[in-house]
Write a structure and sequence with these properties.
Elements: H1 3-8, E1 23-27, E2 33-37, H2 38-43, E3 46-47, H3 57-64, E4 68-75, E5 85-86, E6 90-91, H4 97-107, E7 111-117, H5 124-127, H6 131-145, E8 149-153, H7 162-178, E9 183-189, H8 197-209, E10 215-219, H9 227-246, H10 250-255, E11 257-262, E12 264-265, E13 271-272, H11 274-286, E14 291-295, H12 327-334, E15 365-366, E16 371-374, E17 377-381, E18 385-386, E19 398-403
Parallel strand pairs: 3-4, 4-7, 7-8, 8-9, 9-10, 10-11, 11-14
Antiparallel strand pairs: 1-2, 4-5, 5-6, 12-13, 15-18, 16-17, 17-19
Helix pairs in contact: 6-7, 7-8, 8-9, 9-11
C-alpha cells in the first residue's frame, strides 16, 4: 500500500486545531515575522518544495487566496544520523532553497507548517536514540524556520516500530511543552474502520504519555475506498475510536479529528473528484472537525490528455480540472464557509452506553473471554490474569470494550 506514494514522496498529516483563531507569532532566521490563525494551519495542503516539479506558491496564493502550506518531508539522513534533512539528502542546517520558499510565502502574508515522516526514507524517530534526541533534531527545524506549526506524519513502515513511535510521540510532547502555542498535528493511515491496528497503538501511546496534539488526522485513501461516502464513513468510525481511546464525547472527538485526502487518482487507482472533496468538506464543517488537508499541491493541476485517468502522478491529478481546484476547498475550510449545494449529513447519533459488567475484583482470577467493568468501561480478558488493573498497561491482559 502507498508504494507509489513513497516514490512520489507523498505524505499526509494529522493536526488537532483549536476551535478559535488565536494568532501565533514567531521569527524566522532572517528576523521576518508572520501570524496566522490556527484554522489556516489546519487547512494547509501538502507541498513538496524540492521535488515533484514544485509549483510557485505565490501563484497559488494569488489564484486561490490560500495562505498556508504544509511543507514535506523532514527525514533522517540517508547515510545515518540523528540530524534533520529534507528528503534524507539536504541538511536543514545549511538549507537556503526551502528558506527562500518560506520567505516568499511569508512576504505575501502566509505561513507554513513543516511535515516530518511520510511513507519513504528513514524517520528521525527510527534513527535517534530516544524522545529527547528526536525532539532536539526537530527543534533545529522549528528554530531554523521560526515555525508556528509542525506535522507528525506517522505511517508505514515507521508506525509498525514501537520504539520509533514512542520516540515520535515523546518528541511531539516535548516540542509542544517547549514551544508554547505551537500547532501540532499527527497524521496516520485510514481504513474503513477508521484506522488500523498500528494507528490504534499510536493513539494508545499518545494516551499513555499524556500527549494531546491539536489534531489526529487520518488518510482515507489507498485502502479500498470508493468516493466520498466511504471516506465520511471512515471519519465517523475514527470518531468512535477517539472517543473510546481518550474518553471524549462525540463533539470533543470531532474537535480533535482531521481529514487528509488525496486529490484525483490515488496510488491504488481510486478516484476522488472535486465533488468528493466538497462532500467531505461539508461533513468536516458540519461536524466541526479540526483539520482538512490533502496530498498534494504538486498534484493540483491537470495532466496532459494522454495521462488523464491512466496513471498516478506526483505532478498532476489524472482527473479533469483547472489548476488549483482542490486548493480552493482548503481555503473554504479555513474560512469555515458553510456547506452549500449538498445537504448537510445527519450527524451520527451518540450510541446509548451499554450496561456495565460485574465490577473487576483484584483478588478474583479471570481467564480469556471473561468480562468485567472498571472505571466506567467494560473490559474483556485476553488471557489468565489476577490483580492486574484493567487499562493499567498498554500491552496488558485486558481489552477495552468501550464505555458503559
Amino acid at each position: 500500500m502507498r508504494r507509489l506514494r513513497a516514490c512520489l514522496g507523498a505524505a499526509a498529516a494529522v493536526t488537532l486545531a483549536a476551535a478559535g483563531t488565536t494568532a501565533l507569532v514567531a521569527s524566522n532566521a532572517s528576523g521576518a515575522t508572520s501570524a496566522l490563525g490556527n484554522r489556516w494551519y489546519a487547512a494547509a495542503p501538502y507541498l513538496m518544495p524540492l521535488d515533484n516539479d514544485p509549483p510557485d506558491p505565490a501563484a497559488i496564493m494569488d489564484a486561490t487566496g490560500l495562505k498556508a502550506f504544509q511543507l514535506a518531508f523532514v527525514l533522517a539522513p540517508n547515510g545515518g544520523g540523528c540530524t534533520p534533512t529534507w528528503g534524507g539528502t539536504a541538511p536543514v542546517s545549511s538549507d537556503t532553497a526551502v528558506q527562500s520558499v518560506i520567505d516568499t510565502i511569508r512576504a505575501k502574508g502566509g505561513d507554513v507548517s513543516v511535515s516530518i515522516g511520510g511513507y519513504g526514507g528513514t524517520k528521525l524517530g527510527q534513527a535517534c536514540s530516544d524522545a529527547a534526541s528526536t525532539a532536539a533534531a526537530y527543534q533545529q527545524v522549528i528554530t531554523k524556520y521560526g515555525l508556528h506549526a509542525i506535522d507528525f506524519d506517522l505511517e508505514e513502515p515507521e508506525y509498525e516500530n514501537t520504539a520509533a513511535v514512542r520516540n515520535e510521540i515523546g518528541a511531539a510532547k516535548i516540542l509542544q511543552q517547549n514551544n508554547p502555542g505551537l500547532y501540532v498535528s499527527v497524521t496516520t493511515a485510514g481504513t474503513a474502520d477508521g484506522t488500523g491496528w498500528f494507528g490504534k497503538q499510536m493513539l494508545l501511546e499518545a494516551k499513555s504519555q499524556g500527549f494531546t496534539p491539536n489534531n489526529f488526522s487520518i488518510m482515507p485513501f489507498d485502502g479500498g475506498f470508493n468516493g466520498a461516502a466511504s471516506q465520511t464513513s471512515a471519519l465517523t468510525n475514527f470518531n468512535a475510536i477517539l472517543r473510546s481511546t481518550f474518553g471524549w464525547d462525540e463533539a470533543t472527538a470531532y474537535a480533535h479529528e482531521g481529514f487528509s485526502g488525496m486529490n484525483g487518482r490515488s496510488d491504488t487507482g481510486e478516484y476522488f473528484s472535486q465533488a468528493d472533496f466538497q462532500t467531505v468538506l461539508d461533513y468536516a464543517t458540519s461536524h466541526h472537525m479540526d483539520r482538512f488537508t490533502f496530498w498534494s499541491l504538486n498534484r493540483d493541476r491537470q495532466c496532459t490528455p494522454a495521462d488523464n485517468g491512466g496513471r498516478t502522478s506526483g505532478t498532476c491529478s489524472s482527473v479533469t480540472q483547472n489548476s488549483w481546484d482542490f486548493a480552493k476547498y482548503s481555503v473554504k475550510f479555513a474560512g469555515v464557509t458553510p456547506p452549500t449545494g449538498t445537504p448537510t449529513p445527519t450527524p451520527t447519533p451518540t450510541p446509548t452506553p451499554t450496561s456495565c459488567k460485574t465490577a473487576w475484583n483484584a483478588s478474583a482470577v479471570y481467564t480469556a473471554g471473561n468480562e468485567v467493568s472498571y472505571a466506567k468501561h467494560n473490559w474483556k480478558a485476553k488471557w489468565w490474569t489476577q490483580n492486574e488493573t484493567p487499562g493499567a498497561a498498554e500491552w496488558g491482559p485486558w481489552q477495552d470494550e468501550g464505555a458503559c
